[in-house]
Amino acid sequence: MKYVVLIHNNPAVVEMFAAMSDEERRRAFQIYWDVESDLQQSGELVDSLALDDRTQLFVRRGPEGPAVSETPLPETAELVSGYYVVDVADAARAHEIGARFPEAAVDGGIRVARALTQEDFDAME
């Protein structure tokens, strides 16, 4: 089964990294490379990307064309900063992978969701 592990950057994550020493921050960032390497070796990695928070804009369809803004909603400052698509045996394995990331230590830092296929949608009809 394929799962998407979404890494979020929100105020709690920013505070967590800001409170780290340079060495702690280096070790935290090494986790991403270690997870990627482990997933490549196990054959579970489908894809992964880090997203540039500095360039993210939100596009909504408006009556006069696309409306672009810097935040998704006025009450949130959360951005998706990266993702991993993994092909694993079950949800428990996907959750285990998600728990490895530094963001899993704070509220809202990691989300894990099963990726739906066309067959899943066909079964819903």
Q: Give the beta-strand count.
A: 6
Which spans have pLDDT < 50 for at least 5 consecutive residues?
none
Could you tell me how far the N terminus lies from the C terminus, measured between alpha carbons in angstroms?
21 Å
Count of helical segments? 4
- CATH architectural arrangement: 2-Layer Sandwich
What's the level 1 CATH class?
Alpha Beta
Taken as a percent bin, the fraction of beta residues is: 25-35%
Q: Helix proportion of residues, in percent?
A: 25-40%
Order of helices and strands: EHHEEEEHEH
Major sheet: size, sense and barrel closure?
4 strands, antiparallel
- Mean pLDDT score, rounded? 89
> Under CATH, the topology is which?
Alpha-Beta Plaits
Any overview of this molecule?
The chain has four helices and six strands. It starts with a strand and ends with a helix. The protein is of the alpha+beta class. The strands form two sheets. It has a four-stranded antiparallel beta sheet. Strands 3-4 form a two-stranded antiparallel sheet.
